[in-house]
Amino acid sequence: MIFSSIPFLYYFLPAVILLYFIVPKKMANSVLLLASLFFYGYGEPKMLPVMVVTIIAAWVLGLMVPKHKACFYLSAAICLGLLVWFKGGFAGNALPAGISFYTFQILSYTIDLRRGNIRPQKNLRDFAMYVSMFPQLIAGPIVVYSTVEDRLDPLKRKISAEDIYEGACRFAFGLAKKVLLANNLGQFVSLFQSTAADDRTVMFYWAYALAFSMQIYFDFSGYSDMAIGLGRIFGFSFPENFNYPFISKSITEFWRRWHMTLGGWFREYVYIPLGGNRVGRGRWIFNIFVVWALTGLWHGVQWTFLVWGLYFGVLLMAEKLWLGRVLDKLPAWVQHIYTIVLVLFSMVIFNGGSIGEAMSFIGAMIGIGSAGGGAIPLTGVLSSYYIRSFGVLFIVSIAASTPIAKKLSALRYAEWLKPAAAVILLLLVTAYLADGSYNPFLYFRF
Questions:
Q1: Which domain holds residue 334?
Q2: CA gyration radius for the chain?
Q3: What does residue 118 show for φ and ψ, rounded to 5 degrees?
Q4: What's the pLDDT at 347?
Q5: How many domains are there within the chain?
Q6: Which helix (H) or strand (E) holds 31?
Q7: Within a 10 A sphere around the Cβ of 357, how many other Cβ atoms?
């Protein structure tokens, strides 16, 4: 089951919300836990036992971690072992949805226990609910235990009418980003991939890179918006995961705005423990490459993901050593173009079927090489037709990736239009989904 589906929107979610608010407060966590297990089992019935056993093992070991160091290592080994086993392909094509997210939440819990930053959660139900909570179970954001610890007690969790209203609007806007923008951008990506290499032009390659970059942004940020909105409805405050990354003027800034909970997790639990930047230059460079190699491999044990991570590691290191000072002296528009071009290259690597294919695509973007051996044309009849056909979508997507809408919402009377906009978008999404259109979730595979 996915958020952008009729069964979720009109059957599962209304039933869960109704039950959540009519049962006695002390049973609220039980409702969320059972709903979350049903949600996961509905789409991943064979993988549900993996998550359940992992949760139980982490809870039992967590009770002993503060006094027994071995339990910490065992719990961490279980989580890391699961990631390697499934994402390394040792289990064949089997890959539990969201395993990267819920294992990282368990790891942060275990590490913080060992550090003495938190106390063990003695209630298995509450711990299981924290790990498996369906709003953020499949694709984050990654929620560190300490950020929701005080909200896990249902008797202390307060939910206002404003929380429900703001949460519902946030969910509706995130749903629209995913269904109306990401899905349609995905159709352009599919058109490019199904087009013969001889019919691809330089402009077509650039349009593909832009379309995929926007698709994965609206897909993932839309899901994060939906998760944050649902969390607020149920009384939880989940961390922000995206902050308009495409307005960045450097790669460093981009990664402060993109997938912020993943970046924060690696900074807190890998980079700083390794010594961060408080060590010699050689060790500092080593620390950066370790973090970015792991960031790439977190998405999957494939060469394209590893190269993607190291690509950003090299760029970030260059900006910290000397490139950042050069960028600061350049006009803002040059800094912005520099960032966008490098990000588009990165997304081509990320989505490449192989390193060779990714390098071939990047070469084609700058006019080098072609399937026929001659020069790649700048444009062509077929590619121009596709780009024109999706032109409005590209313009709307680019505008939606900036804070324009946020600034407009601050205008007088804009708040009154917010619920109407949410309802209209929900109706449009429903019509789109009822039509049975293209509706994948890219980050489910991570």
A1: 163-445
A2: 23
A3: -135, 165
A4: 97
A5: 2
A6: helix 28-43
A7: 14
